[in-house]
Amino acid sequence: MSELRGKYIEAVARAADEAALEEVRLAALGKKGEISAMMATLGKMAPEERKTAGAALNILRDEIDAALRARKAALADAALDARLKSEWLDVTLPGRPRRAGTIHPVSQVMDELTAIFADMGFSVAEGPQVESDWYNFDALNIPPEHPARQEHDTFFMHRAAGDDRPPHVLRTHTSPVQIRAMMDRGAPIRVIAPGRVYRMDMDQTHTPMFHQVEGLAIDRDISMANLKWVLEEFCRAFFEVDKVELRFRASHFPFTEPSAEVDIRYSNVGGQLKIGEGEKWMEILGSGMVHPKVLQAAGVNPDEWQGFAFGMGIDRLAMLKYGIPDLRAFFESDLRWLRHYGFSALDMPDLAAGLSR
Ligand code: 2NL
């Protein structure tokens, strides 16, 4: 008996998992188990012998059963401990930062100037980037033989042989958007038209796609004085300076009469540009009073209405405001652009050191 007890208690202690424990239980207490088999022999014993053997077997069975239960509980505890250790999670750890991009400088400038002109009552107009040559040229008083058509270095859309629809171009300015706005809404009107424009030009200061914003204000008695105030107000707000000085130089555009190119006063001390002070002048835009023929083409009666229009390059504005020296910055991955974009490689110390050398 005590040999059996020792054997099974030890087997229970050795069982490494629940399956091993179950094997021990079957071997001892299962229907065909050793203890059960011994119990089955009780019936053949003499009553006195049966009494003592039966009692001893019952005690032995209960002892083994108790050992099995205790071992089972201990194994479950150990398994839970192991899980708690391996599935441990420190909820107090800081989150891993997700790298976020930043808005493109050109988009940012578009947002800024849209807000500034909105404060002055201008709404935003949009239109197609593929235009008929009527909207892009004819309506703007640039007839087929006009030299400006060539100067614009226009991209023409392909036409299959036999396709006799009017020629279409990639718009060379956003003026056609304003022609459409006048035709749709009539006068009076105040709109700006920011967007992509295309010219077949590619060198250190030109890209074939660039961004322009044009402005248009038509009413019964709009004058160049209103144009001057709107542009000064815009420059003050955009460049965030109290004082700006603009210089209007007589010029020529087919779509305005009179026309003026506008320069802004600035200084350049050690490469640091300052707007509104200094001895230098920088051309920032073209402007004028809308030509009567243009109003006519857009269905606005020039005997009743007049107004100003202007156009400027957004890429240049972005470069001026955010200190980008020239267009090569785009092509040669100038660090200032990359930083502005939040280019993640710049945060790797070794690479950043290599780049700034
Ligand atoms: C420049 C010059 C200019 C306009 C654009 C315009 C639009 C209409 C009618 C008349 Cl619908 N004019 N736009 C006028 C003068 C100058 O742009 O140097 N742009 C970068």
UniProtKB/TrEMBL annotation:
Cofactor: Mg(2+)
Sites where the protein binds Mg(2+): E257
UniProt record, GO biological process: phenylalanyl-tRNA aminoacylation
Pfam family, one: tRNA-synt_2d
GO molecular function terms listed in the Swiss-Prot or TrEMBL record: ATP binding; magnesium ion binding; phenylalanine-tRNA ligase activity; tRNA binding
Alphabetical list of Gene3D superfamilies matching this protein: Bira Bifunctional Protein, Domain 2 (3.30.930.10)
Residue ranges constituting the Aminoacyl-transfer RNA synthetases class-II family profile domain according to the UniProt record: 107-332
Catalyzed reaction equations: tRNA(Phe) + L-phenylalanine + ATP = L-phenylalanyl-tRNA(Phe) + AMP + diphosphate + H(+)
The protein's Enzyme Commission number: 6.1.1.20
Gene Ontology CC terms, in alphabetical order: cytoplasm
Cofactor comment text: Binds 2 magnesium ions per tetramer.
Enzyme class name: ligase
Alphabetized CDD domains for the sequence: PheRS_alpha_core
Keyword check for Cell division: no
Main subcellular location: cytoplasm
Compartment(s) of residence: Cytoplasm
Region forming the signal peptide: none
Keywords associated with the record: Aminoacyl-tRNA synthetase, ATP-binding, Cytoplasm, Ligase, Magnesium, Metal-binding, Nucleotide-binding, Protein biosynthesis
Matches recorded under InterPro entries: aa-tRNA-synth_II, aa-tRNA-synth_II/BPL/LPL, Phe-tRNA-synth_IIc_asu, Phe-tRNA_ligase_II_N, Phe_tRNA_ligase_alpha1_bac, Phenylalanyl-tRNA_Synthase, tRNA-bd_arm
UniProt family annotation: Belongs to the class-II aminoacyl-tRNA synthetase family. Phe-tRNA synthetase alpha subunit type 1 subfamily.
Subunit structure: Tetramer of two alpha and two beta subunits.
PANTHER family linked to this entry: PHENYLALANINE--TRNA LIGASE, MITOCHONDRIAL, PHENYLALANYL-TRNA SYNTHETASE
Protein name in UniProt: Phenylalanine--tRNA ligase alpha subunit
Taxonomy of the source species: Bacteria, Pseudomonadati, Pseudomonadota, Alphaproteobacteria, Rhodobacterales
